[in-house]
Amino acid sequence: MEDLFADDVPPANGPDAPSEDAPLADRLRPRNLAEVIGQEHITGPEGAIGRMVAAGKLSSLVLWGPPGTGKTSIARLLADAVGMRYEAVSAVFSGVADLKKAFAAAETAKKAGPPGFRGTLLFVDEIHRFNRAQQDGFLPFVERGVVTLVGATTENPSFELNAALLSRAQVLILHRLDAEALGRLLARAEKLEGPLPLTEPARDALIASADGDGRFLLNQAETLYSANVTAPLDPAALGLFLQRRVAVYDKDREGHYNLISALHKAVRGSDPQAALYYMARMLVAGEEPLFLARRLVRMAVEDIGMADPAALTQCMAAKDAYQFLGSPEGELALVQACIYVATAPKSNAVYKAQKAAWKSAKETGSLMPPMNIVNAPTKLMKEAGYGAGYTYDHDAEEGFSGDSYWPEEMQPQSFYQPVERGFERKVRERLAYWDKLRQGRD
C-alpha cells in the first residue's frame, strides 16, 4: 500500500554511504552498534545504549569522550537501531537559524509521520560550543518529545553544559581507545586495503602514536597506503615518515584539570616518579611553568606544612629560579621542587588548623580578648584595666608564662594538631611540654 505520508515527512540529513574515494576513516565507519570498537561498556547488551536499543526506546544522551572514539558513529547507528529519523548539526558550523530549521523539520515530521513513527534523533556535535542561551533553546523541544537529543562533547559536561539540559539527558562516558582496540581497528583497515608496510615493532609504534584516537590512526594508515612504500618500515623509519599525534590538552579545560589533579595527588602520595611524569606531560603540552610553580607552593603548605618547613622555601626558590632563567633551563628548578615536595614527610595539620580556626572565627563573632593582652596605648585605657596582669613571657621561668590568651566566653581550642612525622614530631613534643607546664600553673 502506498504511504500517504511519505512526501510530507522532511528527509533527514543523515550521512549517505561513503563513496569509494572517501577517506579511509569514513569507509570503515561501523555499520551497526556491534561493530563499534572500544566502547562495549555502553554499546554491549549490559551497557546503557544496549539496554535502550533492546527496549526500542531512547532517552536524550550526552556522549562525552576524547576525539576519535566513535561518538558520531554511535549517534548515527542509534537512530538506525531504533528506527528514528536522524538529523545532525555541528555547533562549529551551525547557528540559531540552523537549529530552528532542524526543530521545525522535526516538528513537521512528528505531525506528518505515519503510525509508529518514532520521531527524530537530533545529533549535535561539539554541543559544548553552543553558549548557555543557545543550550536553553533545546529544552522545550526535548521536553515535548519533538527531538531526542544526542550531544557529543570532548569537554566535561558538568563544566560546559547547562544544569537544566544535563537534568534531561543521561551522560555516557566514552573511553580513549586502548592498544587492543586500536589494533582491531587497524586489522579492519588491512582487511579492506591490504597489509600495512610495517614491521611488527613499527606497527606497535603506529598504534602508540595515535594516543587513543581511532580516526587519527586510520588517517595515518591511509597516508602509508598512499605513499606506495615497498619495503616494510621499522620504527625509526616510521618516525621520520609520520608525525605523532599532538597530545590532547587545553590549558583551561578538562585535560588541564585532570593532569594538575594527578600531579597534586602523586605528590601527596609521595610518588616522585609519577609526579614527574605528570609535570612532564603538562610542560611538554605547553602549560605555563609559573602555573606549576604556584601549584607546587600550594602543595608545600597544604600537604607538607610544618612536617618540613623547608618545602615552602624550596618551592619559592624554584619559582624565583624559573623567573631568572626562563625556559628550558629554569624548568629544572621546578623539577627539583617537585621531587622535594614528593619525597618530603607529609602533614596536612596546618591546612586543617586553618580550616578549623576560620570556622571558629566565623562562629564566635566579635568576642573580646582577655583584658591582660589587649592593647593599652593611653593612660586612660590602662586605668580602665586594659593590659592589666599581662606577664612578659621572656621574664618568666623557662620563657613561658602559661597565661590564657582566649576570650573569657570561649573555651581554649586545639586547631593545630601536629603529626608524628618529620619536623612536626619536635613541634608536637614542644606543645606537649608547654601543655604540661600550663597545667602545673593552673
Describe this structure in words.
With 442 residues, the chain is of the alpha/beta class. It folds into four domains: 24-173, P-loop containing nucleotide triphosphate hydrolases (Rossmann fold, 3-Layer(aba) Sandwich); 179-241, Helicase, Ruva Protein, domain 3 (Orthogonal Bundle); 254-343, Zinc Finger, Delta Prime, domain 3 (Up-down Bundle); 369-441, no CATH class. The protein has helices spanning 24-27, 40-43, 48-55, 71-82, 96-112, 132-136, 139-143, 157-160, 163-166, 179-193, 200-209, 214-226, 235-241, 254-268, 272-284, 289-304, 310-325, 331-343, 349-364, 379-383, 424-441, and strands at residues 61-64, 85-90, 120-125, 147-153, 170-173. Strands 2-3-4-1-5 form a five-stranded parallel sheet. It is elongated, with a radius of gyration of 32 Å. Mean pLDDT is 87; it is low at 1-9.
Structure summary:
With 442 residues, this protein is α/β, with parallel strands linked by helices. The protein folds into four domains: 24-173, Rossmann fold (3-Layer(aba) Sandwich), CATH 3.40.50.300; 179-241, Helicase, Ruva Protein, domain 3, CATH 1.10.8; 254-343, Zinc Finger, Delta Prime, domain 3, CATH 1.20.272; 369-441, no CATH class. It has helices at 24-27, 40-43, 48-55, 71-82, 96-112, 132-136, 139-143, 157-160, 163-166, 179-193, 200-209, 214-226, 235-241, 254-268, 272-284, 289-304, 310-325, 331-343, 349-364, 379-383, 424-441; strands at residues 61-64, 85-90, 120-125, 147-153, 170-173.
